[in-house]
Structure to design on (1576 residues):
């Protein structure tokens, strides 16, 4: 009853401070971001930004095979099943195709952060954080757009890039406008423009505890990765060098457990930036023992020598005797790691060296990496009779080292472009499926929902 | 409170009640005790008793007599009593109010007593009780319950929550439900009692999309709040309505149009339901009411839904087994397998013979799981309600006090609930009745106990108990053979035995709601015509939810074991997930202040011009906060927990597959603030009681998020006109002596606080994998966000035939929703797949008709019928949002509805029969097609079939009441016409999903499926294919072939009352007694569909029938 006495006071209080009264937040959990910390929290939303690599890159690749026809039939998602046989219609009515949607949702976050940061006045005190956040958002927008273009557009070809279909480029957060597809060339230009802006803003070194955050090192590494896929090998080598100058630590696999299911830690030394594929399609590409529908492509598995520690650290045998992928560089996160790591940069550098006939240099680079992969005292350094031999050996090593990283598909597109003539084939229930080099099916179709609502052009497959 | 109020205390003959409360509610603080003292002290207040026995007197004479007995003055216009008959008046020991009421109850008059003067006013109520006064004796008021219950008597003062208006003087559209009609129905829920008795109120049973349980006059929004605003006495009620004891309710007013509801402004868009609680009567000797009832409900019918026979289901499992569907679980060694699959596996390994296998499978098939559910998991529901109330009043005060206790044992064996309610209202008139002080308090304590995890069978033959009734273990997350040996005895028992879970009650939910609401109102008469009132309500509630999962529950054992690690050499068990109980706790509190200051001005100019206005200022400040946490390793005896031993960032492998997870330490809190500032004015002008003009304006401002201050408010207004045609001199239509025409126009509003003009984000509990805080985008910026508005037009006729044999009203209404907030799918490249914003306009129209007919009216026997008829229809007139393909239209048109059709429309693929291989066919680009992908993604809605609405176009009820002497029988028949539902049929994907679920075997039409060539001529059920294709299923599932008519007529309920009256039965200890029998959910009288489906429950099990026996005694 004492509250009754409060009433007159209450009325007066409210009339007196009406403005404040109505400015109360309806819910404590809702934030309209205005501070640097709040924008940072938006970028820390790793379930979007760092888990956006299209899974189709992995499910289409030849890293794995289904164990049986029944297991293939039993998959949850149409795209999971259809991408295995490179069917013309991957989605077959499947809605909410995360391969596409998560990338653009993440770009949307970056755009909101960039617009918000522009409105903030940076004082001297927060300038460093503000710059880093801006660089972070620009870098991620670039990274995300590259993951999309390598999935939904043809491999970069300097001859045709200006006429081939690239990605819709979204640089504003406004959702009222739909972008049509740019050309492949415009898309790469945008990727590089964001990336180059981010370089001067990003934190210089890799955070040893928060590898979800990009750094200058990551920017250099991304340059190297992209240029390699564009077959611009001199540039790729330059940036690989530049990356390794900043950070070249390799993990000696002898220090790792051969039996643990998660041999690598989340912030392991080789990781430059942590990203993974989107979180569905767990039936096939998840890195846990329980997966029995698929196993490692035996052809690929047989390439590992017994003294190669990767054979024991990468793979495990489950209860039914099937090989499965153990947790990789994503630590204990069960989706394939697709981020940047020093091993990939060594491989890029070695490949580029071999391509410009720098055989010795290439061998030194690759052997530096491999020296950390074999049981102590068992490693016999690679040799090569010529540059082609070196290149082939490096490409094989690339395949072995970067398994389950969703890079193989991009490599296939790139290598076939220069005449590698790699044929993929699968057999299921007596039917043989073959994917020819440079087949239009190397480009994933635009999901139905996107096409229906924005009317952008479909890829002909 | 000051002792001033206690001085009226005299001999308190009801002290025992007070003592009783004191004992029961020591926790209810001093505040309540003071209030109780206040109220009880006045029970015995002096009031003079009147005894009159006169024959053949006029009305005027009667009033004169009464007034002289108590020494009051009286005042009325003799004109208004013209035509009243001569009657006999026999009163014994009644109060002045009772005396006047007993003569007024037959006349179109009302009265008030002010400063010892009795004023008689004309026509404040529409008189439905058309008895011939001269033929009957006026009965003491204690019989009023009986009389009003017998025939259609209503308190015709409607309440808007701001003022009480005689319905006569109103222009708007109101529905009044008095306590008798309201209490005709049983049960503990307030709103349920309106089903079938309130015109224009739809109870939505089979809901889609954003559809509330109750809607008033169809709908007027798309995705904003759809619930009507609930007012409890003066202010909105934000608590849970199930808390309120229906027996404390005096009347309910439903405000349907702009003129009635716009006084509630921006929250009135969905209509308003005003609940008025009981408050006693001036000058009435104490009445004690005792109300007791006992209700029994049948068990839910486990056999209602069609399902595959066990044999058929096992045959399907065999097929899937042969296809290799179960290989993943067979090969990993720990995955769950059904009992039938285990047998098939034994046979495949040649461990059993073919004959043994079929014998074992047959034996499995012999058991029906539904019998288990029925036997062990459900029971007859039992509920008991008790209510004791006291009411009365003296010259300067009136009071109402009640105590209620409810206890329910639900159908679900573990679940039970009890509720205690205390309600006390007191009104005091001070300073020569210039100041009215109303105080009230309502206390509620509500306890619920529920089973934490219900039992959901996976297979139709699942057997939970052996012959002796002992619990059997079932395969759930893990294979039975695996858990038999896992850990070689070093782990906790890993078996799942649902019957043990049930019997040991090892996983329970407790919820405890305690609320109180304190009301205070001051009403001061400044001058004769001007009153100033202040209302204040304080509401406070706490809500504690506690989920206790004991260590012996399967849930806890499974978690503890899953995280356990056994050291292979030492055999030691490491348990990162600690032993002990798991407690999930949520504690919420809310408190709200509602305040209002209002001026009321009422005057009569030159005897013919009546002006009645109010203007005021109102504040609402509602704040709530919740906190939640989980305790692991909880020990109830010591109230300790082991949370400190858990590192939430530590990666832990699962015991059986090494999958890495973490143990989340859930702890957090959340708060919300809902504030409104409102200014309003409302007035009416009546000329000669013939013409009435009304108007209202209101401006609401709210703490909408991300909206600049000047956009926080919205002004809304209404106007109305009423014409009492029958008062005109030229009106000589004697068959309809009462006729009134009403027209209103205006705007109500609706608000959606979930949207914002700015970018808003929401923090995600637990942060990311690195432990960093994260903010997730909740709402993309929407600078053009506006409030929703609903334009309302209402035309109404009220009429009464000679002697009120037929009375009723007819209304036509139009609602036009403008700037409605809706969803529209947008291209995923924008980063958002669905956008919520002002995107639609909507038009709804309808007719509400109420007819009350007194079929028979003799002294001994009376028969009346109330007919309710409602027609409503709605149409989306514009929708700016983009539409997805046809698959989104058929599965969820309500998300972004098609223009030109109802929100509730059902669309279907056109069914083109089966092809010769049993595949479903529809139409694409005008030709029969099996291109399922393109049929689904087609953007041409013209290729779809409109399959009607999912809500009734016509609905209403017919309620008959028959009374014969002390007996009364009433029954209500409700009907719903012109609407459809989509039934379920065989679903290939669900049948072949392979991991077992109720949905996989509860399917219809399995036997009707296409099996061989030629079947397509006789059946529409597609062939089963492996693997199932969900898009192929969808074409059939969403085809027009599965649309059924939902039209039906239902016997809603029956009630029989026996009311012996003291006058008639000697030695009865009660002045009034009502013994009643009530039954509801009685079943369907007629339905259009031939399927064995109740159209109100096309996907679930219908509510079981209930029967109650009770009595209400007045002392």
């Amino acid at each position: 009853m004492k509250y009754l006495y409060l009433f007159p006071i209450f009325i007066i209080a409210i009339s007196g401070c009406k403005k404040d009264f109505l400015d109360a937040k309806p819910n404590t959990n809702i934030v309209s971001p205005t501070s640097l910390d709040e924008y940072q929290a938006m970028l820390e939303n790793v379930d979007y930004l760092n888990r956006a690599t299209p899974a189709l890159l992995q499910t289409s690749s030849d890293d794995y095979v289904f164990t049986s026809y029944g297991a293939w039939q039993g998959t949850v998602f149409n795209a999971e099943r259809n991408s295995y046989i490179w069917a013309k219609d991957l989605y077959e009515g499947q809605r909410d195709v995360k391969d596409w949607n998560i990338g653009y949702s993440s770009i949307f976050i970056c755009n909101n952060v960039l617009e918000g940061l522009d409105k903030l006045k940076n004082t001297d005190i927060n300038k460093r954080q503000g710059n880093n956040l801006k660089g972070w958002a620009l870098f991620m927008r670039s990274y995300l757009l590259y993951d999309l273009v390598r999935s939904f557009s043809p491999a970069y070809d300097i001859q045709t890039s200006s006429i081939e279909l690239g990605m819709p480029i979204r640089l504003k957060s406004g959702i009222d406008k739909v972008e049509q597809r740019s050309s492949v060339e415009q898309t790469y230009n945008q990727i590089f423009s964001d990336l180059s802006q981010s370089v001067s803003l990003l934190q210089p070194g890799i955070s040893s505890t928060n590898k979800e955050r990009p750094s200058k090192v990551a920017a250099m590494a991304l340059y190297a990765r992209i240029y390699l896929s564009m077959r611009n090998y001199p540039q790729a080598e330059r940036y690989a060098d530049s990356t390794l100058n900043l950070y070249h630590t390799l993990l000696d696999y002898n220090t790792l457990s051969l039996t643990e299911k998660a041999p690598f830690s989340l912030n392991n030394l080789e990781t430059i930036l942590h990203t993974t594929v989107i979180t569905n399609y767990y039936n096939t590409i998840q890195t846990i023992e329980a997966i029995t529908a698929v196993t490692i492509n035996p052809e690929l598995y047989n390439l590992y020598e017994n003294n190669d520690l990767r054979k024991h650290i990468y793979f495990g045998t489950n209860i039914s005797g099937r090989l499965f992928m153990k947790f990789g560089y994503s630590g204990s996160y069960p989706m394939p790691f697709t981020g940047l790591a020093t091993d990939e940069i060594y491989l890029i550098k070695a490949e580029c060296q071999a391509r410009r006939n720098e055989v010795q240099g290439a061998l030194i680079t690759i052997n530096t990496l491999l020296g950390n992969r074999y049981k102590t005292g068992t490693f016999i350094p690679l040799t090569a009779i010529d540059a082609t031999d070196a290149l082939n050996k490096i490409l094989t090593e690339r395949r072995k080292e970067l398994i389950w990283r969703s890079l193989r598909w991009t490599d296939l597109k790139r290598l076939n472009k220069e005449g590698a003539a790699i044929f993929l084939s699968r057999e299921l229930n007596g039917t043989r499926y073959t994917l020819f080099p440079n087949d239009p099916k190397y480009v994933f179709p635009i999901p139905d929902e996107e096409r229906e609502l924005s009317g952008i052009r479909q890829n002909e497959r | 409170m000051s002792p001033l109020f206690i001085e009226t205390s005299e001999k308190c003959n009801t002290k025992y009640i007070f003592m009783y409360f004191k004992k029961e509610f020591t926790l209810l603080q001093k505040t309540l005790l003071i209030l109780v003292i206040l109220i009880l002290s006045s029970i015995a207040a002096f009031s003079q008793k009147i005894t009159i026995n006169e024959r053949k007197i006029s009305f005027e004479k009667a009033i004169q007599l009464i007034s002289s007995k108590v020494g009051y003055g009286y005042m009325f216009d003799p004109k208004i009593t013209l035509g009243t008959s001569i009657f006999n008046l026999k009163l014994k020991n009644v109060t002045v109010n009772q005396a006047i009421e007993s003569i007024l109850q037959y006349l179109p008059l009302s009265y008030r007593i002010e400063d010892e003067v009795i004023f008689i006013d004309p026509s404040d109520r529409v008189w439905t009780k058309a008895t011939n006064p001269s033929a009957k004796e006026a009965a003491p008021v204690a019989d009023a319950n009986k009389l009003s219950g017998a025939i259609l008597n209503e308190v015709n003062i409607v309440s808007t929550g701001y003022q009480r208006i005689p319905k006569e003087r109103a222009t708007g559209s109101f529905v009044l439900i008095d306590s008798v009609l309201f209490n005709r129905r049983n049960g503990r829920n307030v709103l349920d009692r309106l089903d079938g008795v309130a015109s224009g109120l739809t109870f939505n049973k089979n809901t889609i999309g954003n559809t509330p349980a109750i809607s008033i006059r169809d709908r007027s929004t798309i995705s904003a709040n759809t619930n009507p605003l609930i007012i409890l006495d003066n202010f909105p009620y934000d608590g849970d309505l199930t808390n309120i004891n229906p027996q404390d309710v005096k009347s309910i007013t439903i405000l349907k149009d702009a003129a009635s509801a716009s006084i509630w402004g921006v929250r009135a868009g969905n209509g308003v339901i005003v609940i008025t609680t009981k408050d006693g009567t001036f000058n009435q000797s104490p009445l004690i009411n005792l109300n007791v009832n006992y209700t029994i409900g049948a068990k839910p019918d486990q056999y209602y839904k069609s399902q595959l026979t066990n044999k058929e289901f096992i045959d399907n499992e065999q097929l899937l087994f042969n296809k290799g569907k179960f290989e993943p679980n067979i090969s990993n060694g720990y995955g769950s397998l059904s009992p039938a699959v285990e047998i098939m596996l034994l046979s495949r390994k040649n461990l059993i013979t073919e004959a043994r296998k079929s014998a074992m499978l047959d034996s499995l098939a012999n058991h029906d799981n539904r019998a288990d559910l029925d036997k062990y998991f459900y029971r007859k529901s039992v509920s008991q309600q008790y209510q004791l109330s006291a009411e009365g009043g003296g010259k300067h005060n009136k009071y109402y006090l009640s105590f209620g206790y409810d206890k329910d044992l639900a159908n679900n064996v573990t679940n039970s609930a009890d509720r205690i309610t205390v309600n006390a209202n007191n009104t005091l008139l001070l300073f020569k009745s210039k100041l009215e002080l109303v105080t009230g308090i309502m206390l509620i304590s509500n306890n619920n106990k529920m089973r934490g995890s219900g039992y959901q069978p996976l297979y139709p033959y699942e057997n939970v108990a052996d012959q002796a009734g002992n619990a059997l273990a079932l395969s759930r997350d893990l294979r039975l053979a695996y858990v038999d040996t896992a850990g070689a005895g070093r782990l906790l028992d890993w078996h799942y035995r649902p019957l043990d879970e049930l019997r040991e009650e090892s996983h329970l939910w407790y919820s405890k709601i305690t609320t109180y609401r304190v009301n205070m109102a001051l009403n001061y008469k400044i001058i004769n015509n001007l009153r100033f009132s202040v209302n204040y309500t304080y509401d406070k509630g706490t809500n504690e939810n506690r989920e206790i999962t004991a260590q012996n529950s399967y849930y806890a054992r499974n978690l503890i074991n899953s995280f356990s690690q056994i050291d292979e050499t030492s055999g030691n068990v490491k348990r990162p997930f600690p032993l002990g109980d798991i407690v999930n706790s949520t504690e919420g509190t809310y408190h709200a202040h509602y305040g209002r200051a209002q001026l009321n001005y009422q005057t009569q100019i030159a005897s013919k011009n009546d002006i009645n206005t109010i203007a005021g200022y109102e504040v609402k400040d509602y704040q709530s906060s919740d906190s939640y946490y989980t305790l692991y390793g909880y020990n109830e005896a010591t109230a300790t927990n082991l949370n400190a031993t858990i590192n939430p960032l530590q990666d832990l492998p699962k015991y059986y597959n090494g999958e890495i997870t973490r143990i989340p330490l859930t702890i957090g809190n959340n708060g919300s603030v809902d504030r409104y500032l409102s200014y309003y004015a409302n007035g009416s002008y009546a000329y000669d009681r013939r013409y009435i003009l009304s108007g209202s304006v209101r401006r609401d401002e709210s703490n909408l998020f991300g909206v600049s201050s000047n956009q926080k408010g919205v002004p809304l207004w209404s106007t109305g006109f009423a014409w009492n045609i029958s008062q005109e001199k030229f009106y000589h239509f004697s068959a309809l002596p009462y006729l009134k025409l009403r027209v209103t126009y205006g705007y109500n509003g609706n608000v959606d606080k979930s949207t914002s003009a700015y970018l808003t984000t929401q923090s995600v509990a637990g942060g990311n994998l690195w432990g960093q805080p994260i903010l997730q985008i909740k709402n993309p910026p929407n600078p053009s966000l506006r409030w929703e508005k609903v334009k309302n037009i209402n035309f109404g006729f009220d009429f009464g035939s000679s002697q009120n044999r037929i009375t009723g009203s007819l209304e036509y209404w139009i609602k036009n929703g403008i700037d409605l907030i809706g969803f529209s799918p947008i291209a995923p490249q924008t980063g958002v797949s669905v956008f919520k914003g002002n995107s639609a306009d909507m038009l709804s129209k309808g007719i509400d008709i109420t007819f009350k007919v007194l079929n028979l009216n003799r002294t001994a026997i009376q028969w009346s019928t109330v007919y309710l008829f409602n027609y409503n229809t709605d149409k989306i007139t514009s929708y700016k949002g983009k539409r997805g393909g046809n698959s989104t239209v058929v599965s969820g048109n309500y998300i972004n509805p098609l223009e030109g059709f109802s929100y509730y429309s059902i669309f279907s693929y056109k069914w083109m029969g089966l092809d010769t291989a049993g595949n479903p066919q529809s139409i694409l680009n005008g030709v029969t097609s099996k291109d399922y992908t393109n049929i689904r993604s087609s953007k041409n809605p013209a290729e779809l079939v409109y399959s009607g609405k999912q809500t009734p176009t016509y609905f209403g009820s017919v309620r008959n009441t028959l009374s014969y002497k002390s007996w009364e029988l009433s029954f209500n028949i409700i009907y719903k016409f012109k609407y459809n539902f989509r039934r379920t049929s065989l679903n290939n994907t669900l049948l072949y999903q392979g991991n077992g679920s109720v949905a996989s075997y509860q399917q219809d039409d399995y036997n009707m499926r296409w099996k061989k060539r030629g079947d397509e001529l006789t059946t529409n059920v597609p062939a089963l294919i492996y693997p199932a294709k969900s898009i192929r299923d969808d074409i059939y599932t969403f085809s027009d072939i599965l649309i059924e008519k939902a039209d039906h007529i239902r016997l809603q309920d029956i009630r029989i009352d026996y009311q012996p009256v003291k006058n008639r039965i000697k030695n009865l200890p009660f002045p009034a007694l009502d013994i009643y029998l009530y039954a509801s959910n009685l079943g369907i009288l007629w339905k259009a569909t031939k399927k064995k489906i109740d159209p109100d429950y096309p996907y679930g099990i219908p509510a079981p029938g209930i029967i109650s026996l009770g009595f209400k005694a007045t002392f």
Observations:
- Residues 12 and 40 of chain B are 7 Å apart (CA to CA).
- Chain B touches chain A through 96 residues (CB under 8 Å).
- Chain B has 20 helices and 49 strands.
- Residues 1-47, 123-155 of chain B have pLDDT under 50 and may be disordered.
